[in-house]
Structure formats: structure tokens, C-alpha cells
Specification:
The complex is a heterodimer of chains A (about 200) and B (about 200). Helix content of chain A is about 70%, strand content about 0%. Chain A is mainly alpha-helical and about 200 residues long. The longest helix of chain A is centred in the N-terminal third of the chain and has 30 residues, at about 35-65. Chain A starts with a helix and ends in a 6-residue tail after the last helix. Chain B is an all-alpha fold and about 200 residues long. Helix content of chain B is about 65%, strand content about 0%. In chain B, helix 3 packs across helix 5. In chain B, about 45% of the residues are buried. Classes of the chains: A mainly alpha (about 200), B mainly alpha (about 200). Chains A and B meet through helix 2, helix 3, helix 5, helix 8 and helix 10 of A and helix 2, helix 4 and helix 10 of B.
């Protein structure tokens, strides 16, 4: 149990997707104009991560790894399908996102309106695919570990985008040099936030 | 010709359109992986643009995202296998970021905005130019970070030993992830100032 908690805290704060790996930066920069939409997207990313990573974990464990097909019949144990992993992971993600999009459109039209174009873009959000790829690289022992990792990463991403959106809302009243307005200052703020988050590394 | 050169400076995908930052910054702590990454993205971007443009009249609009993803991920698998076979060490360094080319917003963005509505040859050039524009930023950021952070370029010592003896120190902060963002922010600042003057 404690190692699940460990993975959760580590992936949320120390290995934060935005600040340590720059994952999901496109939508992070584009959808952070106000806190409410940022929160919506953050929750969506969290949810999609928590669903796709465990599914991809099972896919990886029982189909893709070297010798993973041994459970079907011993003759297949020599196969290694890991070169197919990129295409299969992204296919699973795209499918699940499509499903989620339809569910949100049906049950919460307001959120659907707010997220607009960015919902389909979650499929091509690097944070989602990045979550699955890092999961593959870290070789978690069980599905529960991968779920805890996914949830932690999602919460970390949510924290990052909401904090950033809140700062951006205040930024409207500040006096920024002309050339730096807009994207320039957005990058620099993210960098500074990242430096702040590095405190969790414990230097 | 002029409109194809846009992505290199005036419409640079990273600096102006804020696309594709995702995988761009994590690989720029050193120059070598940055260059390899830049080339990989250029190849994938150019060929996916070409393929989608050839297929553009046969893809049903509703499922176009999935089709695009499949085309891009097949190309990325090819690039990934190539890197693993020929430059294994760098492919280790890039780790998951080669896979993340699939979700690079520049590629999807160009497919949506250009390849779906233009014939193959212009699409190919457009993809090539956007890939190069992206690569340009990567190389600049990689150069700054490696030079100031480790005193080396392309793995070779550049800052002379005499400097270190005189008290010069590498800036360890440059190697850390947040600095990549701050450098890109500064490059955007310079770019914007230049553009405002030109107006």
C-alpha cells in the first residue's frame, strides 16, 4: 500500500508531467486563459489518464512485451511485439477519448461547450501518450501501481494548469514589456513554477 | 517560394504558433539529441504531410484524426527502429520522446491546416519547412544549454580549461528542465521585439 502512495506522490509532485517532462504543453499553454476551463481540461486529462494507462498496462503485459503471448500457447512465447506498441497505445487512447467525448457531450453539454475544440485534442495530448510510454518504461509490477501512477500524473498536471491559469488571470493587471506579452511571459512563468516545484526534489 | 519560408522565422511553429513544445524542450539539454530529434520530426512531418495529402480525397472527415494518427505513428515506428539500429545511445537518451513525436502538435496541426486541403508537393514542402523551423529552435536552445550548462558542444569541450582555472563555473541551472522554458521565453521576446520594430 505504501509504495502505491509513494508512486502517487512522486508522479504528482516530483516527476510532474509539465515541469519535469514538458508533457502536454500545447494545451497547457492554450487552455489556461481562465481557471474554470483550465480546471475542466485538467479533470478531463486526469480522467483519461486514469482510464488509458491501466488499459495500456494490460495490453503491454499480455500482448506486447517479449514473450508476453506465452499465456495463449507456449509456441508463441518467442514472439516480441514491442515494436507495435506505439501504434497500439495510440489507438487505444484515441478510442477511449472518442468514447469520453460522446459521454461528456451527452451528459454535461456546458463542459462540452467550454472545452470545445480541445476535447478531441486530448487524444493527441502528449501527456496522455507520455503517461502510457513512461508506464511502459518503468515496469510496474501490478495494474494497481500503474493506476496510482496515472492518477498521480493526472493530478500533477491538473495542479500545474490550474496554478498557471490563476497566475495568468492576475497577469492581466500587470505591466509586462511589450515583446514579452502573451506567449513569452507564459513560458517564463512556467519555468519559474518549475523551479518552485523542484523544491520537492529535496536539494 | 516566400510562403514556404515562413515557418523558419515569421510563422515559426514553436515561437509564434506555440505548437509542439511538448517534446521539444526535454531533449535540448545537449546539442546531439536535439539535432537527432529535429531531424526525426522533420522526416515524420514531411512524409506524413505527403501521405495524408495523397489520401486527402478518400479519408472520411469524421474519422480523419484516427487515420492521421495511424499514418503518423507508423512513420514514427519506422524512425524509432532506425534510431535504435544506427544510433542506439542517442535513442536511449531520447527515450520516450521519440514515441511522443506522434502527439507533436506541429505534425497534427500541419496535417489539419495544410495537407488536408493541398496537393502532395506543396504539402511535402510545407511539412519539411515546419519541421526545419521546429528544428531550428531546438538547435538554438540545445546550443545555449549545452554551452552554458556543461561547457561543451556536441560532446566536445569548448570552454577552455584556463577559464575554469580562472574561476569560471558551469551554470548547472541550464541543465535543469525549467531553464529550457525560460530560454524559449526569452527567444520569443527577442523575436517579438524584432517584429514590432519591423512594423
Amino acid at each position: 500500500m505504501s509504495d502505491l502512495m509513494d508512486i502517487f506522490v512522486r508522479s504528482a509532485l516530483i516527476d510532474n508531467m509539465v515541469f519535469a517532462y514538458f508533457l502536454g504543453m500545447c494545451s497547457y499553454l492554450a487552455v489556461s486563459k481562465n481557471v474554470k476551463t483550465a480546471l475542466g481540461l485538467g479533470i478531463a486529462v486526469c480522467f483519461v489518464l486514469a482510464v488509458t494507462v491501466p488499459v495500456n498496462y494490460l495490453l503491454d503485459k499480455y500482448f506486447l512485451q517479449a514473450g508476453a503471448l506465452a499465456w495463449i500457447s507456449p509456441e508463441l512465447s518467442g514472439l516480441n511485439l514491442s515494436f507495435l506498441s506505439l501504434i497500439l497505445l495510440i489507438a487505444v487512447i484515441a478510442g477511449i477519448v472518442q468514447l469520453l467525448e460522446m459521454v461528456i457531450e451527452k451528459f454535461t453539454p456546458a463542459l462540452y461547450q467550454a472545452l470545445g475544440i480541445f476535447l478531441p485534442l486530448i487524444a493527441v495530448n502528449c501527456a496522455i501518450l507520455g503517461g502510457s510510454l513512461f508506464m511502459q518504461e518503468r515496469h510496474f509490477p501490478t495494474v494497481a501501481h500503474s493506476f496510482s501512477y496515472a492518477l498521480g500524473s493526472g493530478i500533477g498536471w491538473l495542479l500545474a494548469i490550474v496554478a498557471f491559469a490563476a497566475i495568468r488571470e492576475r497577469l492581466r493587471y500587470s505591466d509586462i514589456p511589450k515583446g514579452l506579452q502573451g506567449n513569452g511571459i507564459a513560458y517564463i512563468i512556467t519555468g519559474l513554477l518549475g523551479l518552485g516545484f523542484m523544491a520537492f526534489l529535496g536539494f | 517560394m516566400k510562403k514556404y519560408l515562413g515557418p523558419l522565422s515569421k510563422e515559426n511553429p514553436i515561437l509564434v504558433q506555440v505548437l509542439g513544445v511538448c517534446s521539444a524542450l526535454a531533449v535540448t539539454a545537449q546539442l546531439k539529441p536535439a539535432v537527432v530529434m529535429a531531424l526525426s520530426v522533420t522526416v515524420v512531418c514531411a512524409f506524413s504531410n505527403l501521405i495524408i495529402s495523397l489520401l486527402r480525397n478518400t479519408i472520411p472527415p469524421r474519422i480523419r484524426i484516427i487515420v492521421q494518427l495511424l499514418v503518423v505513428s507508423s512513420l514514427v515506428i519506422a524512425v524509432d527502429q532506425f534510431l535504435q539500429a544506427y544510433v542506439f545511445e542517442i535513442s536511449r537518451m531520447l527515450s520516450v520522446f521519440v514515441g511522443l513525436i506522434i502527439t507533436n502538435c506541429i505534425i497534427m496541426g500541419r496535417l489539419e491546416a495544410f495537407a488536408l486541403s493541398h496537393p502532395p508537393v506543396p504539402s511535402f514542402i510545407d511539412g519539411l519547412m515546419n519541421g526545419l523551423g521546429y528544428g531550428l529552435v531546438l538547435v538554438v536552445v540545445g546550443t545555449i544549454r549545452e554551452l552554458l550548462g556543461a561547457g561543451t558542444l556536441w560532446g566536445c569541450q569548448v570552454v577552455p580549461q584556463a577559464f575554469y582555472e580562472a574561476g569560471y563555473m558551469n551554470n548547472g541551472l541550464m541543465i535543469l528542465p525549467p531553464m529550457a522554458l525560460i530560454i524559449v521565453g526569452t527567444i520569443i521576446w527577442i523575436q517579438n521585439t524584432k517584429r514590432n520594430k519591423a512594423k
